[in-house]
From TrEMBL, chain A:
Highest taxon, organism lineage: Bacteria
Family annotation (CDD domains): GXGXG
Annotated PANTHER family: TUNGSTEN FORMYLMETHANOFURAN DEHYDROGENASE, SUBUNIT C (FWDC), TUNGSTEN-CONTAINING FORMYLMETHANOFURAN DEHYDROGENASE 2 SUBUNIT C
Cited InterPro entries: Glu_synth_asu_C_sf (IPR036485), Glu_synth_lsu_3 (IPR012061)
Protein name: Protein glxC
GO molecular function, one term: oxidoreductase activity
TrEMBL record, chain B:
Protein name: Amidophosphoribosyltransferase
Signal peptide: none
PANTHER family: AMIDOPHOSPHORIBOSYLTRANSFERASE (PTHR11907)
Domain Glutamine amidotransferase type-2: 2-299
Upper classification of the organism: Bacteria, Pseudomonadati, Pseudomonadota, Gammaproteobacteria, Oceanospirillales
Keywords: Glutamine amidotransferase, Glycosyltransferase, Transferase
Gene Ontology terms, MF aspect: glycosyltransferase activity
Cross-referenced CDD domains: GlxB
Protein source organism: Nitrincola tibetensis
Gene3D superfamilies in UniProt: Glutamine Phosphoribosylpyrophosphate, subunit 1, domain 1
One Pfam family this sequence matches: GATase_6
InterPro entries listed in its UniProt record: GATase_2_dom, Ntn_hydrolases_N
UniProtKB/TrEMBL annotation, chain C:
Name this protein carries in UniProt: FMN-binding glutamate synthase family protein
Bias kind Low complexity: ranges: 112-121
Keywords: Oxidoreductase
Organism: Nitrincola tibetensis
GO biological-process terms attached to the record: glutamate biosynthetic process
Region (Disordered): 112-131
Homology family: Belongs to the glutamate synthase family.
Gene3D superfamilies documented for this protein: Aldolase class I (3.20.20.70)
């Protein structure tokens, strides 16, 4: 276990030390002390590391993560896990807006609430939020799964492509081209696996599924008002 | 484009430490706004029928004593004053209009930064740490305080373009974002008798609120109508004599974090500005919802 | 295109001319705005309206071909550990695989590499063909983040954060279903055949204060090695350039309204943005006021066609230029040899702009496997290299004539304007006078 304290070392020092593990891993377990809301902590990792961040983080924590497993023991700022490719990020507190934006893969678990635009333009990541998500979540979502155990804000899944969205609580409103869909056995199975992977205890049967009506996939003049 | 911070004390016992608690919050927002910085501090309230003006002169050796003597005689008002760097705070027994008119006529080089019973605004071009030190922020006392660090977008990096903006009694506003219809709105507000010193979009927002309050809106009503009339992206923090408020536009792209404990309510563009506050680990921390007014007010005295 | 049936007495309206009438009738029939590729087609003040003052008596010209005139430029000297050195200040602008065929992307890479300059990816990610053939490759970071991944980011020689482009400042992208083939769909994680709409803002940051943090993130991920460019469409250029500097850019790319696109609304292409000529002095003024001219490099694009355009950009203060549409034309876009093919799709050589339809007879702006074969990437690369060499030689010729041993020694004082409009925009005097409209009286 290697510990880096951000009060005595810079974020640059931390990230360089973590990046140095990419070609050859010599230290798998890392602990980051006093993150104090600083930006760009542990971004661009490319190794099967386990990183515990002991406090709140600023923008883009874990950005573009590959392979590494991050746990944020606090709240995460804007764009946590943006464009993540693989590995996992767990936020013990709340996440700010654009959590998991454009992420291609891996697992993002938010134990508190997520702000606006959670999973915006997501491209294959799995996101599980124990609390609520804010407005415009999953806007233009392309692929992957978004699971919300609480409520969803306005315009959920606006201009959606192929993300599957599951919500247990209330949806304030659905965005353009997003509709409720039938929950079939394979979806219950998908949810069950997501709960297993994220260590969250929920009953898949309590959730509703939302997805794209696919009406905006090709322009039709009668849909013009939805653009 | 900027960083904004605010601290409203629920526990009056913290009043003597307001400046000390607030200084690191302002400095933490340096990267969001390296061009200028400023703050509006509330406290040291003058009695009814008195007002307090924060005045600035570009010359640090300006003879405030002489100006005070003239004001006292010509306005035939009781007056006391003190100086802080190149800013002076005048307290006098007068109404807002006659005081503004007198200074406009007799002290053309003096810029009125604020008028009210409680507010003092201090702002300058430069880094937040320089501004804090220049005005000895860490020693200041009060009830609440709002600050701003500026990255100038379209209007110039000048003293006049610095925040906070005040256009009415005890009202001030700081802004992160960019308004897209402020020019036409400024013209309309000028016709309503609101005056503007700059081409800055944030000053228009402050002027808009002054106008709505003058027309009889409550602060909440004024902010709700701002959601309709102001276009663009904004997170505002607004100070009034009795409290402060936070509001974001309906799209809510510009960041904002609120924290509340039994002792205080704090607002910042980024969480890192809150980390120095006592008890922040156990505070309720959340992001304000879009198009929603958050306001804290103490009962008016 | 024939006027043979028009007789005296038949008068065409200047307001409702034939193009306008056709557009109103097209709109009424389809109910959708006109989407097309290419850049602005309207006439705007341009580099043709400027002339150089060659040396004669008061200045001494340099001997062509013998006396040295440097063309190499280093980009990204502000923060990057590994700045890019280009041998000619003409780079290839960002154009996506998806909008262009893989062969076209490869040809651009080959051509640029042959003359030691850089090429740029586009909205849709980096292809192995492109990376393999480009010795210096700039990786675009766009709002959609299609195909965006950290491996390619780390393979790039520079990163270009795109806020906008000259053809459509403030607008998102559009790639119609015909071009979303299996490979394009896979790279962009989209269902095959959908109309792909790209966002106009980045998903995880808004404004220059957030951009400063985003730039830091990109630097952190790439360990501060490569330069970070910021690309903006030319509108409020003076302010945008200042903010890009404040946000921490190494290089600023300003794309004027004549800059091309693969597909967007015609109304956007023709009615938004300012001419390239007008943008450069604004950008240079902003850099000079911040003490950053030449420290943060300025790349200019939008309607650059020949070495004179290159030299004029440099004289106005740019460090380099980028070409897009001109490079496609060099590859064979709108070539007369495809005239009969253009006619089949309702166009003509010299008029073709329906890049979004993916039916390009020249095999450039298409994903059709048969059409694509018409462009040989090796031959195409040779054409690009030839064209880049001509641009460089022409620019050098003009610089030598003005007595400069380096293209970057050209100055605004080497230029005069032919029209009052160009004089005002470029901030150089009207030829034969000392009058710069708006600056002096």
């Amino acid at each position: 276990m290697r510990t880096i304290d951000i009060t005595s070392q810079s974020v640059r020092d931390l990230n360089q030390a973590l990046h140095d593990q990419a070609p050859e891993c010599t230290e798998r377990e890392w602990k980051v002390l006093n993150p104090a809301g600083k930006h760009n902590i542990a971004c661009g990792l490319d190794q099967n590391l386990s990183v515990d961040i002991m406090g709140h983080t600023g923008y883009f924590c874990g950005g573009m993560n590959k392979k590494a497993h991050l746990v944020i023991h606090g709240n995460a700022g804007q764009g946590v896990g943006e464009n993540m490719m693989s590995g996992s990020i767990r936020v013990k507190g709340d996440a700010s807006q654009a959590a998991g934006a454009t992420a291609h893969g891996g697992l993002l678990v938010i134990e508190g609430n997520a702000g606006a635009r959670c999973g915006i333009s997501m491209k294959g990541v799995d996101i599980v939020v124990k609390g609520n998500v804010g407005h415009m979540s999953c806007f233009m979502g392309q692929a992957g799964h978004l699971v919300v155990c609480g409520d969803a804000g306005d315009a959920l899944g606006d201009s959606l492509y192929e993300v599957q969205i599951f919500v247990k609580g209330n949806v304030k409103s659905l965005g353009a081209d997003c509709i409720e869909k039938e929950m079939r056995a394979e979806h219950l199975q998908t949810l069950k696996e997501l709960f297993n992977r994220s260590g969250i205890d929920e009953e898949p049967e309590a959730f509703k599924r939302y997805g794209s009506a696919r009406n905006l996939y090709n322009f039709k003049v009668d849909n013009a008002s939805a653009y | 484009m900027c960083g904004i911070v605010g601290l409203y004390l629920k526990n009056p016992a913290l009043g003597p430490k307001l400046g000390a608690l607030f200084e690191p919050m302002l400095i933490a927002m340096t990267e969001r706004g390296p061009d200028s910085a400023g703050f509006a501090i509330y406290g040291d309230e003058v009695p009814e029928h008195w007002i307090k003006l924060t005045l600035r002169h570009p010359d640090p050796h300006f003879d405030w004593e002489a100006l005070a003597e003239r004001a006292k005689t010509e306005l035939s008002a009781q007056l006391s004053w003190f100086q802080n760097a190149n800013v002076a705070v005048f307290k006098l027994e007068a109404d807002e209009v006659s005081a503004r008119d007198w200074f406009a006529e007799h002290a053309k080089d003096v810029l009125i930064l604020s008028v009210g019973r409680s507010i003092e605004i201090l702002k300058e071009v430069g880094l937040p740490i320089e501004i804090s030190e220049r005005f000895s922020l860490s020693g200041m006392q009060g009830t609440h305080i709002i600050g701003h660090t500026r990255m100038a977008t379209e209007s110039a990096v000048t003293m006049a373009g610095s925040h906070p903006f005040s256009t009415g009694m005890d009202l001030c506003l700081v802004h992160n974002g960019s308004l897209s219809n402020h020019n036409r709105l400024r013209e309309n507000l000028r016709r309503e008798g609101i005056s503007f010193e700059t081409e800055n979009d944030s000053e228009v927002a402050a002027g808009y609120l002054t106008w709505r309050l003058r027309e009889g809106d409550s602060l909440k009503q004024a902010l709700e109508s701002a959601l309709t009339d102001l276009d663009g992206f904004f997170t505002f923090t607004i100070g009034t004599r009795d409290g402060f408020a936070v509001i974001r536009d309906p799209i809510a792209c510009k960041p904002a974090v609120l924290a509340e404990t039994d002792d205080y309510v704090a607002m910042a563009s980024e969480y890192q500005a809150l980390t120095s506050l006592p008890g922040i680990e156990n505070a309720k921390v959340w992001e304000p919802e879009p198009a929603t007014v958050y306001a804290w007010e103490r009962a008016s005295v | 295109m024939t006027d043979i049936n028009i007789k005296p007495g038949m008068r065409e309206s200047a307001t409702f001319d034939r193009n306008t009438i056709a557009e109103i009738q097209r709109a009424a029939e389809t109910g959708i705005y006109d989407i097309r590729g290419f850049g602005a087609k309207r006439k705007v003040p341009h580099f043709d309206d400027l002339l150089f003052l060659g040396a004669s008596m008061s200045r001494y010209p340099l001997e062509g071909y013998r006396e040295k005139c440097n063309t190499s430029v280093t980009l990204g000297t502000r923060f990057a550990k590994k700045p890019i050195v280009i041998e000619t200040p003409v780079t290839i602008a960002g154009m996506s695989f998806g909008a262009l065929s893989a062969n076209a992307k490869e040809a651009l890479g080959r051509g640029a590499s042959a003359v030691g300059t850089s090429t740029t990816t586009g909205d849709g990610g980096m292809t192995p063909e492109e990376r393999g053939q480009s010795s210096k490759l700039v990786y675009q970071y766009l709002p959609s983040r299609y195909g965006m991944n950290p491996d390619d980011l780390r393979k790039a020689d520079a990163i270009e954060v795109v806020l906008g482009q000259g053809a459509k400042p403030g607008g998102g992208g559009m790639l119609l279903g015909q071009k979303i083939t299996d490979r394009v769909a896979m790279m962009r994680t989209l269902p095959k055949g959908v109309d792909q709409r790209s966002a106009c803002r980045h998903p995880d940051w808004t404004g220059p204060d957030d951009l400063a943090i985003k730039i830091q993130e990109l630097r952190e991920i790439t360990d501060w090695l490569v330069p970070i460019y910021i690309k903006v469409g030319a509108t409020r250029t003076y302010y945008d350039v200042k903010l890009a500097v404040k946000a921490g850019a190494d290089v600023i790319v300003v794309d004027g309204m004549q800059g091309g696109t693969a597909a967007t609304q015609d109304v956007f292409i023709e009615h938004v943005g300012i001419p390239t000529l007008a943008a450069i002095p604004q950008a240079v003024q902003a850099l000079q006021e911040m003490g950053m001219h030449r420290k943060v490099q300025l790349i200019v694009s939008g309607g650059i066609r020949n070495g004179a355009d290159v030299a004029k950009c440099m004289a106005l203060g740019a460090d380099a230029v980028a070409i897009g549409t001109a490079a496609l034309i060099a590859l064979g876009c709108n070539h007369p040899k495809w005239q009969s093919e253009y006619e089949k799709i309702g166009s003509a050589a010299g008029f073709y702009d329906d890049y979004h339809e993916g039916k390009d007879p020249a095999g450039i702006s298409t994903q059709d496997p048969d059409l694509m074969q018409r462009l040989d990437p090796i031959e195409g690369g040779r054409r690009i290299a030839n064209y880049l060499r001509v641009l460089t030689l022409e620019a050098q010729t003009l610089a030598r004539a003005c007595g400069k041993n380096d293209l970057r020694h050209l100055e605004p004082e080497d230029l005069v304007a032919l029209t009052v409009e160009a004089a005002a925009m470029a901030r150089v005097p009207l030829a034969g006078t000392q009058w710069i409209p708006g600056q002096s009286f």
